[in-house]
């Protein structure tokens, strides 16, 4: 049975006198550190000495030290670094300091689920996974709200691992919206499946296929971009607000009818069979082994595919169009990170 916890079900005072180490200061790390600090929790940020995030964290007034020292001086250690580096980080800088009575926490279950991190007995292992990017976790918290989260306990040596996880979730602001109890297995498997089949893999492939179909049929690439990429946000926002029914209520009857007759032809039994295969590969560990091996070999396939995808025509067309749409706060991937696209006024000349 689904079980949700809210502010009234959690007690932040459980964290009193217990320092929390936030390992990493990226998207999630900065939100966790700042939200917990603003909730009165004693926080220290653990980073590599050469990390570009050291100055950013210190600029907010947060104490920063090495990963090892943060783990050593804290009773609760939350690891918020990228999945593929967590096992090495744990072995080399954290494991030796996890004495009995301490708590190890994650915001994603990948490394526990697939045995890359195997904590010893005598400690609690739990998870608080906000269902939003870190900047949104922070933004909503500052507005007085919170985003939902998934909470799980993998190892309960103290007998109160769940209470402590909920205290952390409340300090993060997520029990304002609701914390849903799950398991490391369920969170990891559904998260990977959602990314691959729908949110990233499925949507990206569908957008590109729609764009290519129209362009190959002789339609203007700019029109194809608007229909298959730009307007996607409108539809997703409607779903976000009120589900599929609200989206269908809000669009035209023609669009709704097209949804009913065309959707099942796009996502047919073959598509569903592929989805089941993807899920099976996630559950049996095949995907995890493949991804871990890819990282260990230096990411050759990943880098080649990323380079190829950046050259897709939809990216060139979209870049030109987004420059003229100042309201979208357009971004561009550049060497070393992300930059704002240069804004140019709308005019009636041809787009190269």
Structure characteristics:
352 residues, alpha/beta, nine-stranded mixed sheet, two-stranded antiparallel sheet, 11 strands, globular
How far the N terminus sits from the C terminus, by CA atoms, comes to: 56 Å
Number of helices: 16
Query: Which class best fits the helix and strand makeup?
Result: alpha/beta
- Report the helical percentage: 40-55%
Strand order of the largest sheet: 1-9-8-7-6-5-2-3-4
Mean pLDDT, to the nearest integer, reads: 94
Low-confidence stretches: 344-352
Provide a descriptive summary of the structure in words.
By secondary structure, this protein is of the alpha/beta class. It contains 16 helices and 11 strands. The strands form 2 sheets. It has a 9-stranded mixed beta sheet with strand order 1-9-8-7-6-5-2-3-4, with helices on both faces. Helix 1 (27-38) runs parallel beside helix 6 (134-142), helix 8 runs antiparallel to helix 13 and helix 9 runs antiparallel to helix 10. The radius of gyration is 23 Å and the shape is globular.
């Amino acid at each position: 049975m689904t079980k949700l916890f809210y502010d009234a079900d959690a007690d932040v005072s459980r964290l009193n006198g217990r320092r929390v180490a936030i390992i990493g200061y990226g998207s999630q790390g900065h939100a966790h550190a700042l939200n917990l600090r603003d909730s009165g929790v004693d926080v220290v940020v653990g980073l590599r000495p050469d990390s570009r995030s050291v100055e950013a964290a210190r600029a907010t007034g947060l104490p920063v030290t090495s990963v090892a020292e943060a783990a050593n001086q804290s009773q609760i250690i939350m690891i918020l670094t990228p999945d593929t580096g967590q096992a090495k980080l744990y072995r080399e800088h954290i494991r030796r300091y996890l004495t009995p009575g301490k708590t190890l926490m994650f915001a994603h279950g990948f490394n526990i689920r697939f045995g890359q991190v195997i904590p010893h007995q005598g400690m609690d292992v739990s998870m608080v996974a906000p269902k939003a990017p870190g900047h949104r976790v922070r933004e909503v918290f500052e507005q007085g709200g919170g985003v939902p989260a998934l909470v799980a306990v993998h190892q309960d040596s103290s007998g109160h691992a769940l209470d402590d996880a909920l205290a952390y979730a409340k300090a993060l602001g997520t029990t304002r919206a609701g914390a849903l109890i799950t398991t490391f297995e369920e969170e990891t498997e559904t998260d990977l499946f959602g990314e691959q089949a729908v949110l990233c893999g499925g949507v990206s492939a569908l957008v590109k296929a729609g764009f290519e179909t129209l362009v190959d049929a002789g339609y203007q690439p700019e029109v194809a971009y608007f229909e298959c990429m730009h307007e996607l946000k409108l539809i997703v926002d409607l779903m976000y607000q009120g589900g599929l029914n609200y989206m269908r209520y809000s669009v035209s009857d023609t669009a709704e009818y097209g949804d009913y007759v065309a959707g099942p032809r796009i996502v047919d039994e073959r598509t569903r069979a592929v989805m089941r295969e993807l899920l099976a590969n996630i559950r049996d560990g095949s995907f995890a082994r493949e991804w871990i091996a890819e990282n260990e070999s230096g990411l050759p396939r990943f880098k080649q595919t990323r380079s190829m995808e950046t050259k897709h025509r939809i990216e060139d067309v979209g870049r030109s169009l987004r420059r003229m749409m100042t309201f979208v706060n357009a971004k561009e991937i550049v060497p070393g990170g992300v930059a704002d696209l240069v804004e140019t006024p709308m005019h009636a000349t041809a787009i190269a």
